TrEMBL record:
GO terms for cellular component: membrane. The lineage of its organism: Bacteria, Bacillati, Actinomycetota, Actinomycetes, Mycobacteriales. Pfam families: Lipoprotein_9. Keywords: Lipoprotein, Membrane, Palmitate, Signal. The keyword Membrane applies. InterPro entries: Lipoprotein_NlpA (IPR004872). Residues 1-25 form the signal peptide. Belongs to the NlpA lipoprotein family. The keyword Signal applies. It is found in: Membrane. This is Methionine ABC transporter substrate-binding protein. It is a lipid-anchor. Its main location: membrane.
């Protein structure tokens, strides 16, 4: 029995304050990693280090002589900042769409090593098991640009919303043809969508929050489906492939690549499916193809 090391955001902040005496703080972190030797742990950033699949991965990695050190974050921006500054070696919490927007917005060049999964976007409605009666309702959706856009495309795919243009990758509420739509939307912070659900409103809730709010994923009345007839994979599938990300200089790191392979093992997959109620779609795309998708998304985000 051994104790799994999880570094909290508070500890990370304290460490940063101690090191902040000069502009060399970031480079010092990188230097520490570089001089720690080949046997040092691989530091992984994520937003869900408490989930059991990480322990399964750690056990598998330890058998191969790879030690993992988890660093947990409570928001979506800090893991990439930490990776860009060299405080972590890799992270796994984001899809390619989010990564592209972060790179463009922050001038970074974080790249994918391997794919992991797609978490289908679910619509929940308390005490309902179908879309029947939803016309005229106001649907709570996350207000961050990526999940907001995906939510709008989900509702549009079912004819609940009418968008002014088809196949928009990043639609906003301004793109809704309200007169031709059957529902309206209320963008709120993603963390507040479970509260809207609890109040009886239909709500799009991301996987980061329905599990924490003890909402059974099998109770969703709708999921986006990249395999549905007529679905555009460039809109509904490719942007939302979750990935292992690294600095560009570490794109061929053999330990990170091996961890990515182990993550797609039967043991880890089973743990993930238990957490997500069997809703996860696992994806195994070549690194070069993931980079091509990221390049396309970054080009679109730069317009």
């Amino acid at each position: 029995m051994y104790l799994r090391r999880i570094i909290s955001p508070v500890a990370a902040v304290v460490a940063a304050v101690v090191a902040a005496g000069s502009l060399s703080a970031c480079s010092s972190a990188s230097s520490t990693n570089e001089t720690a030797g080949e046997d040092r742990p691989i530091v992984i950033g994520t937003t869900d280090a408490e989930l059991p699949e990480w322990q399964v991965l750690e056990d598998l990695a330890k058998k191969e002589g790879i030690e993992i050190e988890m660093r947990n974050f409570t928001d979506y921006a800090t893991p990439n900042q930490s990776l860009a500054e060299g405080d972590t070696d890799t992270n796994k919490f984001q899809h390619l769409k989010f990564l592209s927007e972060y790179n463009v917005g922050n001038g970074t060049n974080l790249v994918p090593v391997a794919s992991t999964q797609i978490y289908p976007m679910p619509l929940f409605w308390k005490d309902h098991d179908s879309l029947e009666g939803i016309e005229g309702q106001q649907v709570a959706i996350p207000n961050d640009p990526t999940n907001q856009a995906r939510s709008l495309n989900l509702l549009a795919s079912q004819g609940l919303l009418k968008l002014k243009e088809d196949d928009l990758l990043t639609p906003t509420p301004a793109d809704i043809d309200e007169g031709a739509s059957k529902v309206s939307v209320a963008p709120v912070d993603a963390a507040q969508t479970p509260s809207a659900y609890g109040e009886g409103k239909p709500a799009v809730i991301t996987n980061s929050f329905f599990e924490r709010a003890n909402i059974d994923p099998s109770q969703a009345i709708l999921y986006d489906d990249p395999d549905s007839p007529g679905a555009n994979p460039e809109v509904m599938f490719e942007p939302y492939i979750n990935v292992w990300a690294v600095q560009e200089k570490d794109k061929d790191n053999p330990k990170v690549k091996r961890l990515a392979e182990l993550y797609l093992s039967d043991e880890v997959k089973a743990a993930v499916q238990k957490t997500t109620g069997g809703t996860t779609i696992f994806v195994d795309k070549p690194q070069a193809e993931l980079q091509q998708i990221l390049d396309r998304l970054e080009e679109e985000a730069s317009k």
